[in-house]
């Protein structure tokens, strides 16, 4: 179980009126106050900054030749290769940034060098090789006749491998954004934004953005060669930038803004007309439209990353992102989707096993969580470690000892988040004898501003290989060293923290009400997009609210066997509005939502699949004045007026007139009533709940089915719309049973489409459809019978039973 979270509300400084009015120019439908507060908090405090932040056309990007002499050296070497028709190899990486970097160079350099003959690419196998260059791969390229390697998203610290390539007559141009080497390696050029000061507008470029800058410089140096505009690469740049979670400021934000626009424009085209049909098909599979950064971070990025995590070899992803062959792209997209489904299933399994191991830890004495298991697939450890770190507030390291003792580099494989791996023992006795050693490998994730890279680096003497950055690292070490490593890294962090206690922290940016939620606020907050590190998605605090109509469902894996994830959906309400607002909570069951009044932190989103605005719940806790904090005496609290025709009209409390079909329906009313009691008059004047339904007068299930079919035919013939509420009132069944009926109607040739909050029925009769509908109709009739049975039960269930259930829920 996660520890009690610490909630932090960002200190708000009221921006000056001139700034609010300047922001309002971009939000004509709303006041602009919330966006102005956020922008002011995040350091945007003058008109020029504001204009450049919101409108990329007003931003002045840096020249590619800001990289100075190194860029000139790189272009000179590429021009030499162009003039002498040398063969070039792109050396990429297997994560989303590395795949998109390779794709940008494949398409970009492909304008100057014939693909597959003069230009090839190589991506290491995640399950067999590490990040970065390796001698075996270099040998392979040398046999193909390559004279130049251009790396992307990797290579800065591969000094020994670069020397080895040079001995084989191969020059290396490094384009990367990871850790700088202690000294400049013997390369033709090294283009890495880490050489810039942190304040430079290019400092935060990811691997794909650095690759783009190299292509941009070549376009400028050989202006009459390329057939396709440079801007056609920007959609790939946006995917890599956002998937890699770099800070979206300076040129990063500018490139991401332009790339998202191109991504959206291309997706709107018919599949056959798209420049990137593979990207379009991936968006369709994850039910996204490409116009939001979250479409990349939650949709495209995880799918691209999943391929190497599951299959090892992600080389075909470059073809998926760059090919114009629609049929081929569709095939590759389906393979990618299956890999992602498998990744989700494996991740869920590991999460459950880690949760079990966490119960055996005393978190009060644990500063760094280090767990190991022989069965864990290394490809998903970084994802699970990140989740555990967020839930516990502690840096987390997960290690797999699967296959420990295998020979050579196989034993030191690393599955970090696109991090460079530094070998600590390449010339030592350890590397020459590692065929006899048991090596664990794994991933680490940090939280609470703990610099994980430095933390791990301090224990370098216990490690075989490691690498990373402050929030993510990968490592391998002898299995026998794990206990010593665990004790040492915990002691080190405890000493550096002093009296500071690590707890999960959730940050809220703004306080809003349910009445504020919706299209206007969404469009106002959209000014801050694309969001990322340094400019996170706004977190909204909603206080003294409650949840209604909650339900959850399980998503099966692609083979229909294991539960892949769960998702709770609900309506949220507070005293600011009579209307509820929809929302969802990924990875949670509806029973985890608190009863009565509570506070929550959420993100406002637009669901392109359901075409609605909704909140995505981040954290929730009971309010200080929450209902049900203390047990109540419920016998006088619940008033039984069933089957008493006129008594309910005299009752001043809450009245339930519709007979429920399950205990959850009754609990929902109970929660509302208790919340009102606590928030208004207090316990001494409890709000009464009257159960006032009458004994139901049910129609036979067959007659209900015929009525539903008749209504559907009438609506189709007259082209009228109907709400679900109107249907439920007419037919007299529950919402859940109606959904079963609508599924049965589809077998009769009915098409049911949403139009805002209404339904539209269209009927295209099919002579053979009725035979196919038998099973679906039988399910509907069974659902009706079950519902009617439940209503008969609640019509006569003793009040004492209702009170007992309610009393249990109130504890």
Structural summary, described in words:
The protein is α/β, with parallel strands linked by helices and 811 residues long. The strands form six sheets. The chain has a six-stranded mixed beta sheet with strand order 7-8-10-12-11-9. The chain has a five-stranded parallel beta sheet with strand order 3-2-4-5-6, sandwiched between helices. A five-stranded mixed β-barrel has the order 15-16-17-19-18.
Tell me the overall shape: globular
What structural class do the secondary elements suggest? alpha/beta
Q: Based on DSSP secondary structure assignment, what is the total number of beta strands?
A: 25
Q: On the 0-100 scale, what is the average pLDDT?
A: 84
Poorly predicted runs are 405-436, 625-636, 679-684
| Rounded radius of gyration (Å) | 30 Å
- The percent of residues in helical segments reads 25-40%
The CA-CA distance between the termini, in Å, is 20 Å
Sketch the major β-sheet: 6 strands, mixed
The number of helical elements comes to 26
How are the strands of the largest sheet arranged?
A: 7-8-10-12-11-9
What is the beta-strand fraction? 15-25%
Multimeric organization:
single chain
Strand and helix map with partners:
Elements: E1 6-9, H1 17-24, H2 33-41, H3 47-54, H4 69-84, E2 87-91, H5 96-109, E3 119-122, H6 135-143, E4 146-151, H7 159-167, E5 171-175, E6 189-191, H8 207-221, H9 234-243, H10 251-267, H11 277-285, H12 293-311, H13 316-322, H14 326-358, E7 369-373, H15 381-392, E8 396-400, E9 422-423, H16 429-432, E10 439-445, H17 452-457, E11 465-469, E12 472-478, H18 482-497, E13 505-508, E14 510-512, H19 519-525, E15 540-556, E16 563-573, E17 581-586, E18 598-607, E19 612-622, E20 638-640, E21 654-656, H20 663-681, E22 689-691, H21 701-718, E23 721-723, H22 724-731, H23 735-747, E24 750-755, E25 758-763, H24 769-772, H25 774-796, H26 799-809
Parallel strand pairs: 1-13, 2-3, 2-4, 4-5, 5-6, 7-8, 14-15, 17-19, 20-22, 21-22
Antiparallel strand pairs: 8-10, 9-11, 10-12, 11-12, 15-16, 15-18, 16-17, 18-19, 23-25, 24-25
Helix pairs in contact: 1-2, 4-8, 5-8, 5-9, 5-13, 8-9, 9-10, 9-12, 11-14, 12-14, 13-14, 14-15, 21-25, 23-25
């Amino acid at each position: 179980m996660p520890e009690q979270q610490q909630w932090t509300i960002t200190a708000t400084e009221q921006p000056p009126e001139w700034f609010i009015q300047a922001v309002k120019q971009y939000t004509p439908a709303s006041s602009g106050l919330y966006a102005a507060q956020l922008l002011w908090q995040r350091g945007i405090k003058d008109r020029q900054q504001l204009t450049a932040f919101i409108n990329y056309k007003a931003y002045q990007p840096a020249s590619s030749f800001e990289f100075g002499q190194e860029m000139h050296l790189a272009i000179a070497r590429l021009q030499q290769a162009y003039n002498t028709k040398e063969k070039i190899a792109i050396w990429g990486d297997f994560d989303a940034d590395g795949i998109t970097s390779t794709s940008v160079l494949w398409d970009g350099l492909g304008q100057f060098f014939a693909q597959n003959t003069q230009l090839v690419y190589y991506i290491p196998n995640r399950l067999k090789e590490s990040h970065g260059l390796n001698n075996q791969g270099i040998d392979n390229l040398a046999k193909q006749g390559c004279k130049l390697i251009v790396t992307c998203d990797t290579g800065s610290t591969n000094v020994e491998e670069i020397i080895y390539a040079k001995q084989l007559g191969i020059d290396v141009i490094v384009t990367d954004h990871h850790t700088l080497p202690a000294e400049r390696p013997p390369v033709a050029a090294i283009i890495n934004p880490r050489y810039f000061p942190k304040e430079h507008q290019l400092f935060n470029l990811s691997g794909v953005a650095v690759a783009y800058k190299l292509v941009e410089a070549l376009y400028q140096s050989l202006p009459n060669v390329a057939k396709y505009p440079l801007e056609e690469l920007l959609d790939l740049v946006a995917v890599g930038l956002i998937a890699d979670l770099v800070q979206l400021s300076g040129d990063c934000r500018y490139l991401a803004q332009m790339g998202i626009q191109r991504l959206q424009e291309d997706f709107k085209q018919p599949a056959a007309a798209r420049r990137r049909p593979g990207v379009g098909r991936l968006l369709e599979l994850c039910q996204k439209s490409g116009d939001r950064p979250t479409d990349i971070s939650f949709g495209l990025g995880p799918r691209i990353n999943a391929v190497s995590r599951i299959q090892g070899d992600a080389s075909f992803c470059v073809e998926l992102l760059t090919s114009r062959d629609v049929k081929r792209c569709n095939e590759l997209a389906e393979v990618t989707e299956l890999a992602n489904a498998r990744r989700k299933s494996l991740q869920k399994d590991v999460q459950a096993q880690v949760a079990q191991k966490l119960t055996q830890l005393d978190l009060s004495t644990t500063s760094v969580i280090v767990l190991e298991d022989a069965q864990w697939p290394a490809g998903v450890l970084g994802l699970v470690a990140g989740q555990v770190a967020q839930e516990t507030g502690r840096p987390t390291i997960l290690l797999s000892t699967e296959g420990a003792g295998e020979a050579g580099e196989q034993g030191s494989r690393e599955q970090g988040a696109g991090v460079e791996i530094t070998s600590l023992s390449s010339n030592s006795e350890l590397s020459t004898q590692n065929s006899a050693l048991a090596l664990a490998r794994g991933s680490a994730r940090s939280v609470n501003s703990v610099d994980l890279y430095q933390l791990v680096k301090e224990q370098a003497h216990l490690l075989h290989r490691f690498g990373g950055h402050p929030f993510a690292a990968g490592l391998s070490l002898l299995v026998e060293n794990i206990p010593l490593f665990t004790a040492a890294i915990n002691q080190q962090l405890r000493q550096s923290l002093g009296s500071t206690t690590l707890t999960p922290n959730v940050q809220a940016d703004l306080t809003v009400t349910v009445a504020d939620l919706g299209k206007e606020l969404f469009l106002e907050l959209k000014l801050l997009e694309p969001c990322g590190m340094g400019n996170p998605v706004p977190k909204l605090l909603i206080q003294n609210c409650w949840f209604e109509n909650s339900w959850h469902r399980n998503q099966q894996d692609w083979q229909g066997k294991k539960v892949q994830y769960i998702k709770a959906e609900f309506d949220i309400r507070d005293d600011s509005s009579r209307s509820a607002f929809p929302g969802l909570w990924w990875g949670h069951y509806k029973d985890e939502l608190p009863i009565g009044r509570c506070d929550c932190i959420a993100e406002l989103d637009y669901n392109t699949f359901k075409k609605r605005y909704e909140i995505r719940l981040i954290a929730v806790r009971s309010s200080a004045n929450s209902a049900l904090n203390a047990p109540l005496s419920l016998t006088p609290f619940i008033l039984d007026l069933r089957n008493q025709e006129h008594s309910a009209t005299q009752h001043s409390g809450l009245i339930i007139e519709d007979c429920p079909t399950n205990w959850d329906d009754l609990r929902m009313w109970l929660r509302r009533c208790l919340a009102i009691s606590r928030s208004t008059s207090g316990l001494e004047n409890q709000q009464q709940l009257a159960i006032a339904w009458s004994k139901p007068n049910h129609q036979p299930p067959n007659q209900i089915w015929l009525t539903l079919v008749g209504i559907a035919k009438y609506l189709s013939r007259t082209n009228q719309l109907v709400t679900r509420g109107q249907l439920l009132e007419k037919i007299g069944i529950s919402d859940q049973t109606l959904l079963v009926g609508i599924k049965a109607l589809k077998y009769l040739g009915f098409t049911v489409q949403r139009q805002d909050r209404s339904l539209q029925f269209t009927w295209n009769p099919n002579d053979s459809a009725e035979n196919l509908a038998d099973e679906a109709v039988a399910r509907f009739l069974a659902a009706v019978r079950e519902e009617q049975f439940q209503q008969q039960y609640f019509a006569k269930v003793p009040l004492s039973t209702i009170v007992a259930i309610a009393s249990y829920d109130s504890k």
